[in-house]
Amino acid sequence: MTLTLWGVVLFTAFMVFLVLAIITEAYFKSMYQHSTEILSQRFGIPAEQLEKVVQEAGTRAEAVLEWRLTRGDEGEFFLILLAVTVLLPFLLAWWSSRRFARPLTQLSRAAHLLTRGDFSARVPMDKSLERRGDETALLLKDFNQMAASLERLEQERRYSLAAIAHELRTPVTVLRGRLEGVRDGVLAAGPVEFEKLLGHADLLGKLIEDLQVLSLAEAGALRLEQQHLVMQDLLKRVAGDFTAKAEEKHIGLQLDLPLEPVRVNGDPERLYQVLGNVLGNALRHTPPHGHIHIQLVEDRQKLILEMADSGPGFTPEALERAFERFYRSPDRGRQSGGSGLGMALSKSLIEAHGGQIELFNSSSGACVRITLQTQ
Ligand SMILES: Nc1ncnc2c1ncn2[C@@H]1O[C@H](COP(=O)(O)OP(=O)(O)OP(=O)(O)O)[C@@H](O)[C@H]1O
Ligand SMILES: [Mg+2]
């Protein structure tokens, strides 16, 4: 039993003792009155005068004894009082231990396990606790929910670290293999080979850079170089940089921009990165001779940017998981440059700007909608 509970037991015992003392006092008073009545009847003396007579004659004790004997249940009464004095505090202690102390001890045990890194620790909840709606039961339920969230986060962290290690190992292994080939004379040390080596080093560099930006953005520690921007200018710049790629696949790139400048406060390089990733994805998924439609509208201090392509659209799995780190469609291998960080990064960057990014399928294909606050 805990110290608090012992306190409760002692306090209850004291209170019971106090109450019993008052009852006993009243009991003796009534006994005294009865004895006075008996004696006054026996000697025919008025009760007021009897006091003196009794004191003088010293017969009070005898009279009391007589009255007691006539009652007969004296011993039984005291035995009951004793039993109540002893039993009541223990019953109370047992009840409060079941109701409060035991769940709190279990909570403390689970909290200790949690601090030691055992994220599977939970407070056992029996049916009566589940049904209870008092503060103790609510505390236990909240603790178990918190422990479950921590366990999920820990699993995600472990998975994420394993995925990062896996993603970094692959380009390093490829680089190493090719460098060994050059050293051993298996691969010709010409400009073509060096170009390939540089390509792999670039991929590795992009992966590390993306991971760094993503971690900073998710931790809310990414420093944005914010400035006043006109969204149309940024979109024209991105579209211009991707024109060659679009022409290669004979894809029509249509920009539908309002005449009035749409102004935002944002980091131009980070927003470029988002738009570049979304447009890059659209170009990759749109078949030759397809088209991509970029539409910008301003509505009640908000800009809505939609980039729709005429590709096959998001698969149900991609719709659900595209924002996860390292998620990419099975056909998008590392060789084609995809790490599956693009959408996760885009989401973090847009959210760092206070905006939202959504994915859906339109009648023609995939569509990405970005919403940002305008100035
Ligand atoms: N326009 C699109 N049409 C169909 N599926 C898409 C489209 N854009 C993205 N996806 C799906 O979402 C996945 C994740 O996209 P994301 O940009 O995160 O990764 P990635 O483009 O494969 O790699 P990275 O962007 O790192 O180079 C893609 O692999 C693809 O399955
Ligand atoms: Mg991408």
Report on the structure:
The chain has 375 residues and is an alpha+beta fold. The protein has 3 domains: 3-118, no CATH class; 149-218, Helix Hairpins, CATH 1.10.287.130; 227-373, 2-Layer Sandwich (Heat Shock Protein 90). The protein contains 11 helices and 7 strands. The protein has a 5-stranded mixed sheet. It has a two-stranded antiparallel ribbon with strand order 1-3. A hairpin with a 2-residue loop joins strand 4 (291-299) and strand 5. Helix 6 (135-183) packs antiparallel against helix 7, helix 7 (191-218) crosses helix 11 (342-352) and helix 9 (268-285) packs antiparallel against helix 11. The model has no long low-confidence stretch (mean pLDDT 87). The site of adenosine-5'-triphosphate has 21 residues, from helix 9 and helix 11.
Offer a quick outline of the entry.
64% of the residues lie in helices and 12% in strands. By secondary structure, the chain is α+β, with helices and mostly antiparallel strands.
Q: What brief labels describe this structure?
A:
375 residues; alpha+beta; Helix Hairpins; Heat Shock Protein 90; 3 domains; 5-stranded mixed β-sheet; two-stranded antiparallel ribbon; 7 strands; 12% strand; elongated; binds adenosine-5'-triphosphate; binds magnesium ion; two-component regulatory system
